[in-house]
Design a protein that fits this description.
By secondary structure, the chain is an alpha+beta fold. It folds into two domains: 12-76 and 91-121, no CATH class; 128-273 and 294-317, Immunoglobulin-like (Sandwich). Helices cover 45% and strands 18% of the residues. It has eight helices and ten strands. It has a five-stranded mixed β-sheet. Strands 4-10-9-6-7 form a five-stranded mixed β-sheet, with helices on one face. Helix 2 packs antiparallel against helix 3. It is elongated, with a radius of gyration of 27 Å. It binds copper (II) ion. Residues 203, 238, 240-242, 246, 249 line the site of copper (II) ion. Residues 28-124 form the Cytochrome oxidase subunit II transmembrane region profile domain. One of its GO terms (molecular function) is cytochrome-c oxidase activity. It catalyses: 4 Fe(II)-[cytochrome c] + O2 + 8 H(+)(in) = 4 Fe(III)-[cytochrome c] + 2 H2O + 4 H(+)(out).
């Protein structure tokens, strides 16, 4: 029992040390990972840098403060005959020092942090928009302007395992509760705007490798963006307690090179194609024709995605 636990700790410590030694954090969080990862986007790199700056400032402060305390306690201990100094009740010099130093430190952190936050909210000049809608308990993705949309829910194997009542062993599933049936396919090196909303309760869409999480709130459209640098599979989860199956609505993003994405998109469109000719003649009586041109015009500028999102949202709800 005891040996088993020691082994467990040893394995954990090794797993913890390995990424540090290799100086390479994988995009997805790993068990026993202590530091945050760098992620695969510009924004995640920004978050990592802001975090490391604050972390190192805290480390230096910690070493200085606890070091001074340790020295004081050891050097001026009672057994050595130390007597407490009761005369120091006020020192203007010290007060100025311990006001100025924190102000300088805060300023050193606030300027880079602010510029990073501004970048984070700048969704202009994005090449495409994906609408993310949270449902109890799955996600729906709409590639706005492309006519491609699908839902993404927990993979069947995870679902069966979780409902089987058995204790999950290591070999049962490679990505237990972190796999989905339909992954969100995105192109790399492309500025992708996300508009996020929800159909029922508040959810939050979170893929750590992208560097942000954003609330998905019914009746509100939130924005975010990502430009993924490396192709790969990035996993995430809902990050807002949204009901009993909150833990069972994972997210999987598959980032592929642009050409591959275009192929995938064409294939998805082809899948939906057979339905289109059937719908078109039905909605084409003479009088409907002018009305039909209006939404087509509105669809072209990307700026109107909020309205488009609202329309699609209503369609989903119905
Ligand atoms: Cu949730």
């Amino acid at each position: 029992m005891k040996a088993g636990r020691i082994k467990q700790w040893a394995v954990g410590a090794a797993a913890m040390a390995l990424p540090v030694l290799a100086n390479a954090q994988a995009a997805d969080p790993k068990p026993w990972q202590l530091n945050m990862g760098r992620g695969v986007t510009h924004l995640s790199q920004n978050a990592y840098e802001a975090h490391m700056l604050a972390l190192w400032i805290c480390v230096v402060i910690g070493v200085l403060v606890f070091g001074a305390m340790a020295v004081a306690m050891f050097k001026f201990r009672k057994s050595k005959g130390a007597v407490a100094d009761q005369s120091l009740t006020h020192s203007t010099k010290l007060e100025i020092l311990w006001t100025v130093v924190p102000v300088v430190l805060l300023l050193a952190m606030v300027f880079p942090a602010t510029s990073k936050l501004i970048q984070m909210y700048d969704t202009r000049e994005s090449a495409m928009t994906v609408k993310v809608t949270g449902f109890q308990w799955m996600w729906k993705y709409d590639y706005l302007g492309e006519g491609v949309s699908f839902t993404s829910r927990l993979d069947r194997k995870s679902d069966e395992l979780r409902q089987s009542g058995k204790v999950i062993a290591e070999g049962d599933h490679d990505n237990y509760l972190l796999d989905v049936d339909n992954v969100l396919v995105l192109p790399t090196d492309t500025k992708i705007r996300f508009v996020l909303t929800a159909d029922d309760v508040i959810h939050a869409w979170w893929v750590p490798a992208l560097g942000w999480k954003q609330d998905a709130i019914p009746g509100i459209v939130n924005e975010a963006w990502a430009e993924i640098r490396e192709p790969g599979l990035y996993r995430g989860q809902c990050a807002e307690l949204c009901g009993k199956d909150h833990g069972f609505m994972p997210i999987v993003v598959k980032a592929v090179p642009k050409a591959e994405y275009q192929q995938w998109l064409a294939a998805e469109k082809a899948k939906n194609a057979p339905a289109a000719p059937v719908a078109a003649p039905a909605a084409a009586p003479a009088e409907a024709a002018p009305a039909e041109t209006a939404p087509a015009e509105g669809e072209t500028p990307n700026t109107d995605a909020t309205a488009a999102a609202a329309t699609q949202h209503a369609a989903v709800a119905g």
